[in-house]
Specification:
single chain, 348 residues, alpha/beta, Lyase, Ornithine Decarboxylase, Chain A, domain 1, 8-stranded parallel sheet, 10 helices, 18 strands
Length: 348
């Protein structure tokens, strides 16, 4: 695992970093990891964090050491470079991926989510377990009925349970999802299938986990960092945002506006959910409504100064991290070192 500690004479104050730069506050990161683990214990579920958020081996190790039972990945490429003896691939895998999946299963315990009979038949091999994905109202992937879930389970070589993604469902959505999950589990039981695992959860929906009481584990990811979308949804407060982007004002030529040196190639083009803006400025009533690749257009109520450095919580931390080779880390505004984003670009 890569960890580059600060060398003598190198940057100490985070504000001295060349911009744009990603910085993680270790105190906040560690608190977020510990808090979610404690909450899962209180809810009576296991925690299997989704590591697509950070893509960094060192952070995955912190989560595992805190009590996570394994990791969740979106793609095999992430699993191949990140730690964890128990890996769930939360994505439909097709035949061309099977040699890599089987190679992974020789070293680690592997689970795969499937949502069709064809994929369930194909995904088999020693050490490969399957979960049938259920659509609980999000409309992305997953079996659409209890009958379809049973058909998929019958095609699995090593059925272990079911998988659902609640995304941003509200309380009413969770209650409706619970009805669907119960119907699926009852149909599976009637057909002779025991679902030992009921895997759900997301960061926005984590606190609603008790509304689906048959859940056995959850897979939040964003909670390690949180972001502006989490803030807007009141999932966290500003002090919980461990990941921040340091940027510099490069132009104040247009009245009522400044431009910062970070655009879509720094933040991604994802907007804050429900707000239509980009990022959250720390300590400033600034609003960023437009991005070019390297320019952030910021509405300002008062003066700004060229060369001024500002901190921004990104709208979507997962997409932001994937744009960067390294992330600086430290405590109380100091720099202690940097991490390589080892799974950056691992989309296969």
């Amino acid at each position: 695992m890569h960890r580059q500690d600060r060398k003598e004479g190198s940057i100490v104050d985070a504000l001295d970093l060349d911009t744009p730069a990603l910085y993680v506050d270790l105190d906040v990161l560690e608190r977020n990891i510990a808090r979610m683990q404690e909450q899962c214990r209180a809810w009576g579920v296991a925690l299997r964090p989704h590591v697509k958020t950070h893509k960094i081996p060192e952070i995955a190790k912190l989560q595992l050491e805190a009590g996570a039972i394994g990791i969740t990945v979106a793609k095999l490429g992430e699993a191949e470079v990140l730690p964890g003896d128990d890996v769930l691939v939360a994505y439909p895998l097709l035949k061309p991926k099977l040699p890599r999946l089987r190679a992974l299963a020789k070293k680690r315990r592997v689970k795969v989510a499937v949502d069709s009979v064809d994929v369930a038949r194909d995904v088999h091999g020693k050490g490969i377990e399957t979960l049938v994905e259920i659509d609980v109202g999000v409309g992305r992937t997953g079996a659409q009925s209890p009958e379809q879930a049973v058909e998929i389970a019958q095609a699995c070589s090593d059925f272990q349970g079911i998988f659902y993604w609640p995304s941003w469902l509200d309380e009413a959505g969770f209650r409706a999802a619970c009805v669907k999950i119960d119907a699926v589990l009852d149909a599976l039981s009637a057909s002779g299938f025991e679902a030992r695992i009921v895997s759900g959860g997301s960061t926005p929906g984590a606190a609603k986990t008790p509304l689906i009481p048959r859940t056995t584990e959850i897979r939040p990811g964003t909670y390690v960092f949180y972001d502006a979308s989490s803030l807007a949804a009141q999932v966290c407060v500003e002090a919980d945002c461990a990941l921040r982007v340091l940027t510099t004002v490069v132009s104040t030529a247009v009245p009522g506006q400044c431009v910062i040196d970070a655009g879509s190639k720094t933040f991604s083009s994802d907007q804050t959910v429900g707000a239509g803006t980009f990022g959250h400025f720390i300590g400033r009533a600034w609003t960023m409504r437009k991005l070019n690749e390297e320019h952030g257009y910021v509405e300002i109520p008062g003066p700004a100064h060229v060369g001024e450095k500002v901190w921004v919580v990104p709208s979507h931390c997962c997409a932001t991290v994937n744009l960067h080779d390294e992330i600086w880390y430290g405590r109380r505004g100091r720099v202690e070192g940097s991490w390589k984003v080892a799974a950056r670009g691992k989309v296969r």
